[in-house]
Amino acid sequence: MERLLKDIFSFEDRPRFERIGFLIFILIVLIFPWVVKSAYGRAVMIKFLLFALFGLGWNLIGGYGGQVDLGQAKNVGFGAYATGLMMLWWDVPFWVTVPVGMVIAAAESFGVAYPMFRLKGHYFAIATLCVALVWKELFVFWDWTGGARGVEIPIRPTPNFTYMQFGSPIHYHYFIFFLFLTQLLFMNWFRKSKLGYECQAVRDDEDVAASLGINVYRTKVIAYTITGGLGAVGGSFMTVYYLYIDPDFVMPLDLSILIAMTVMVGGAGSLWGPIIGAALLIPLDMYLGAWLGAQKRLGVDFMIYAVIMMVIAAREPKGIWGIIERMRKKRTG
Amino acid sequence: MELTVQLFIYGILMGLVFALIALGLSLIFGVMNIVNFAHGEFLMVGMYIAYLLSTFLHLDPLLSLPLAAAAGYLLGIMSYHFLIHHILRGPMVAQLFGTFGLMLFLRYLAMYLFTPDVRSIKEGLLVGKTLSLGWVTLDLSKSVSAALCMLSFGIVYWMIYRTKLGRALRATSIDSEAARYMGIDTKKMNALAWGIGGATVALAGSLLAHFYYVTPTVGMLFTLIAFAIVALGGFGSITGAFIAGIIIGLIMVVSGHFLSELKFTFVYIVYFLVVVLRPRGLFGW
Which helix (H) or strand (E) holds B46? Predict the structure, then answer.
């Protein structure tokens, strides 16, 4: 028990500058809503934390596991719809819907992982994409999910913690920060766990991993299942934050790509990578996108994304974190 | 009965167009083992060329074929030299993201230039005409497009299997190291595969534009259809792409007739089943 708590909360194995940086980051996020009063600035911060949360989850399969999953949006959708539909039909409290959404997403991931991990590389990546698109098409097609019209969440008369509906963005800020922190601590445990090391061994060389007695297939399936569950949490948050969901909003291909991209840009397979990636891309998207949108320059923000993506792929596959690591190694010799 | 025949013929016609679309993807994969996510965006470029020529210069969209092919060829060669060549050495994740970046770039460049509006070609020799064959009536533009696609497919097939250049291309595809020792410039072959891939798919795009709407986001769908075809036919197999194209065309047209909202779902499910049950496809090795 004590060991487990230590694994979850301890960052002692990280170098000192990382721990100091992390502490500064936490302080900034904590005081942020008291310093920044503009509604737009706060919305950017919340979206950043949301995508950092998504990135942390995806990093498990995409970074540590080395499997390119281009369908994480389906899990976001499962979480969002579990929360939305259960609230709409039965008035179920938010905190009950979250684990349900996670279990549904994890179960679905487990079910498709079983045949899917017979595939490798490109075949696997395309298969994840297809699965996510099939789910999206089904959610549009079905009536009980609200179809293309989506689901509107009934507004509560008073702000409350049962349904997580608040009047001010400050509440949502701390709420998403809490979810983000739990996921970060989970990933902190994961990277030091047996499963975490197994995933990394599988990523680096499947044959060597197998020769060391690791069940490669089983490791991948478990990692993919957990990733599914983690993705649903952010989806549940989206439901109560935006109060409206539809398949185009919570499970489009663009969302899957953006999630994978934040991790790739920040640095896949490192604890901080997803946070760095989201910190770069989300403000870029929100400010530049809004500014260019006002100028009627539609699409320029995505073209900038695309260029970043191509440059990272060609020059620095380990992302920004890879650059930081290299610089530090050079300095310490 | 008439309906069955009609659906069957339309399926085959669509399949012939799909086969030409998938040809380039299969060729590129065969030669250099890389999947081009921007494939559908190359198609979109061809579609926009046909649309722009027809709408602004009032030229018949059929005249845009050589232009589209040339543009596709250039685009393919440029993509290879400026991007693909640099990501080949990297890990597979980087390759995937590289072509994904290319896809996003072309898609949003089109959105910037042409806005997200859905457009379609209104004038042209074939547009909106029908062809009566006894008791079946066919859309003339679909029939002619399919015939031209088959012709182009045949020309590329002949080039790959009957010419010296094609032999060098096939040698690179089987074993690029050995091909290099034999004196084949494999880098040139890679670029050529991208060029042919781009030219054929853009050509297919300018034909497709005769009867299919054009928007900046149209590419993704056809990329996925092409993936399904290439997986079914066997990655790298040209014959496979042709037969699988027709099969997927039939599946899409028939399922689209009965359950139009889910017609793409069937294509994805075919991909999924094929790669899981028979990963090397019908004609792969």
Answer: helix B39-56
Question: Domains plus CATH for chain B?
Answer: 2-277 (1.10.3470)
CB contact (8 A) between residue A68 and residue B93: yes
| Two structure tokens written together for A268 | 């896949």
Per residue in A168-211, pLDDT (tens digit) is: 788 889 999 999 999 999 999 998 899 999 999 998 888 898 89
Domain membership of residue A261 (yes or no) is no
Prediction pTM value: 0.86
Query: What is the C-alpha to C-alpha distance for residues A94 and A175, in angstroms, rounded to an integer?
Result: 12
**A77-93: b or e for each residue (b if 16 or more CB lie within 10 Å)?**
bbbbbbbbbbbbeeebe
Nearest Cα of chain B lies from the Cα of A24 at a distance, in angstroms, of 31
> Across the interface, which of A137, A299, A307 has its CB nearest the CB of B264?
A137
Domain that holds residue A55: 2-252
User: What does the angle CA B250 – CA B220 – CA B148 come to, to the nearest 5 degrees?
Assistant: 50
A68 vs B96, B228, B275: nearest CB: B96
The answer to whether B104 contacts A257, with C-beta atoms less than 8 Å apart, is yes
Identify which of A217, A231, A242, A274 has the alpha carbon closest to the alpha carbon of residue A132: A231
- Angstrom distance (rounded) from CA B42 to CA A202: 35
Parts of chain B with a pLDDT under 70: 126, 263, 284-285
Q: What are the tens digits of pLDDT across the range A88-112?
A: 888 888 899 999 999 999 999 999 9
Q: B138 pairs with which residues across the strands? A: B131
Cβ–Cβ pairs < 8 A, chains A and B: 130
Whether the CB-CB separation of A99 and A254 falls below 8 Å is answered with: no
Provide the pLDDT for residue A261. 87
User: Is A227 a residue whose pLDDT tops 90?
Assistant: yes
**B105 to A127: CB separation less than 8 angstroms, yes or no:** no
**Nearest chain A Cα to B108, which residue?**
A299
Report the pLDDT value the prediction gives residue A333, as an integer from 0 to 100.
Answer: 64
Of B204, B60, B47, the closest CA to residue B122 belongs to B60
- pLDDT over 80 at A280, yes or no: yes
Which tens digit of pLDDT belongs to each residue from A31-65? 888 888 888 888 899 999 999 999 999 999 988 98
Do A261 and B97 count as a contact with CB atoms less than 8 A apart? Answer: yes
Q: Is the pLDDT of residue A14 over 70?
A: yes
Inter-residue contact B194 to B80 (CB < 8 Å)? yes
User: Is A300 inside any structural domain?
Assistant: no
Nearest to A68 by CA among A1, A120, A3: A120
As a whole number of angstroms, the distance between CA A185 and CA A73 comes to 22
Q: What share of chain B is helix, strand, coil (3-state, %, to 5)?
A: 75, 5, 20
Q: Is A213 left (phi over 0), alpha (psi -120 to 50) or beta?
A: left
Indicate which of A126, A137, A281 best probes the interface with B, i.e. most B CBs within 10 Å of its own CB: A126
Does the beta-carbon distance from B101 to A303 stay under 8 Å?
no
Q: Does B278 touch chain A (CB under 8 A)?
A: no
As for how many domains chain A has, the answer is 1
A226: in domain: yes
Contact flag B261-A125 (C-beta cutoff 8 Å): no
Residues of A in contact with B116 (CB under 8 A): 298
How many whole angstroms separate alpha carbon A115 and alpha carbon A130?
A: 14
User: Testing the interface with A: which of B33, B35, B100 to mutate, by most A Cβ within 10 A?
Assistant: B100
